[in-house]
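Reproducibility note. Readers wishing to regenerate the assembly model reported in the main text can use the exact inputs given here. Chain order matters: entities are listed in the order in which they were concatenated for prediction.
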Amino acid sequence: MESVFIPSGRGRALDPFRRTLILTREELWVDYIGLGGIAGIDDLNGYLAGGRDLGRLEHNTIAQALNERFVDLGGNHPVPYLD
Amino acid sequence: MFHEPLDDLFLGSFNSHCLRPQASVTRTLFGHELVRWLKSKELERNADGVRRACRSSMSSDLTEEGPITESLLSLARILFAGQSVEETLDAVAHLAQQNIPGCDAASVTVMHDGRPSTTVSTAAMAWDVDQHQYDADEGPCLEAVRLQTIVRVDSYLDERRWPRLVPAAIEHGVRSSLSLPLVALDEPVGALNLYSTKQSGFDHAEGVGRTFATQAAITLANAAALQRAAELARHLSIALERRDVIGQAKGILMAQSGMSSEEAFDVLRRASQRSNRKLHVLAEEMVQRHASPEAAE
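Running the prediction on these inputs yields the following structure tokens for the assembly.
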């Protein structure tokens, strides 16, 4: 399956979850890299701010990183993925 | 000592106090080597700052650069010894006591969530008087932090500004004090508190004290930045281990089912969602099952 590029607004939808977790962008980037993400921290920041595009796989990897933080807090994957 | 790519990777970004590693990082760049390199870069910057601070902040109280410059440079050097922020603060307080004329005891107040606490002190007198200030919510140290200004008390016997603090200070033998705000990046981070058992003990020490406090604040900010860098390196090391095992699990899925890397990730994250378990844990189990299928049965 080829990775499709997602309109930049999708990234902005992830940022409220990060803020809810009181997670810095640097901390999120480290988690994302640990899950296999390949974007640099500048690209991640740009994506969350809505000014840069990333593919579906990277979006879902960021969502997974956020969801795993929610798992630590007793939650169950509240951040939606792109199918 | 360090190869060029490492310099390329971190040099510019660390100068702006923001680590911005690239996606192509490898595990060899992290751990103790990274921390040592960060410290060496920080030391160079710090030492230059010390020299500039000495040249620009010399006052009439401080006409010779030699001994004070050396003591300030030693503040920069302590970062090389792998010391914690607390150890750095301790060195700051002792160097201040040794080098600021009239000083019999020194302490460092650090603000945590807007509340002051004494992190280190060179003598019980300083510790006790600091505590009295916090309990009474008044005193020169708190004024120095809150107003970001130097507060000098020449005689506690004649002091009327802090009626709850002064009797306790006198009882502990304090006769004069100098409180210097520690400001880093325009933010008040604490105060350097100097106490003397003599009246007017700090008549000619404000200039030296100001120079010293400036560098002490920079040292504190740098120590905190280094601690953050070390913490980041530790977290990255763990993340890269997890990334490795997730990569192996994806490889197994791709080999077994002919799926793409993205599809393999989807399989794993859906399993994570269904079981509400972390992806690297599931990947670890899959790799173990693959390595020894009989053990998994």
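We highlight two features of this model. The interface with chain B takes residues 1, 3, 26-27, 30-31, 33-42, 56-57, 60-61, 64, 67-68, 71, 76-77, 81 of chain A (CB under 8 Å). The first helix of chain A runs from residue 9 to 12.
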